[in-house]
Amino acid sequence: MTTTIPPKMRKLPTQALGAKIFHTINIVSLFLMVTSGLQIYNANPVFGGRAGLHIPPIFTLGGWLAGGRHWHFAAMWLFSLNLLWYGIYVLITRRWRHRFVGVNDIKALQKTQNPKRLFYAWHRIVYTSIIPILLLALFTGLGMYKPAQFPAIVDMFGGWQGLRIVHFISVPMVVIFAFVHSFLGKKAGGEELTSSMFW
């Protein structure tokens, strides 16, 4: 009589509760900022003046300029505070050692033939590169939020219009990062890895 040994169950990836909360709040606040930002954009398009390209109302939030601004600034505070506490959390738990690009990742791009290792390396590179982009988005957003209090920020970008253009460009870069981050996460760890970021 032979006994069959059940195959070893693959261990599913798990994430800390702090990471789940961070990712969930990020997705919600990013959605609110983009849609309300498009409402603000419609009031005075960055390119082409008031006659420039307008976004259909179905993709905007706020209903009018003031409503869009209220939603945008509220979501901005949520997004900023979420980044701040997560940064502290990453430092305290030392998660930064496994999340950001290191020398081994650069070496992996040059030498490894393992596709999964390559995806991990690219994932860490993308994860690290978003930091200056996020800081730029927040910095330019602060200048637009309080131009009278921070005129130096406005001057740094050559005036109000230059500030608006840089802020406008930084936002789609954050959105693109979210999709690339998700894609590389799936390639490196499968659907289970990306799902574990939220539940």
Give a concise summary.
The protein contains seven helices and no strands. The chain has helices spanning 17-43, 65-93, 96-99, 103-111, 115-145, 151-156, 160-196. The mean pLDDT is 84.
- What is the terminal separation in angstroms? 43 Å
> Helix coverage percent of residues?
over 70%
> In DSSP terms, counting alpha (H) and pi (I) runs of 4 or more, how many helices?
7
**Sheet/helix structural class:** mainly alpha
What Rg is obtained from the alpha carbons, in whole angstroms?
21 Å
User: Biggest sheet, in brief?
Assistant: none
Shape: elongated
How many extended strands? Answer: 0
Helix-strand sequence: HHHHHHH
Low-confidence stretches: none
* Percent of residues in β-strands: under 5%
In round numbers, the mean pLDDT is: 84
How would you describe this protein?
This protein has 199 residues and is mainly α. It contains 7 helices and no strands. The chain has helices at 17-43, 65-93, 96-99, 103-111, 115-145, 151-156, 160-196. The mean pLDDT is 84. Helix 1 (17-43) runs antiparallel to helix 2.
Q: What features would you highlight for this structure?
A:
199 residues
SSE map:
Layout: H1 17-43, H2 65-93, H3 96-99, H4 103-111, H5 115-145, H6 151-156, H7 160-196
Helix pairs in contact: 1-2, 4-5, 5-7
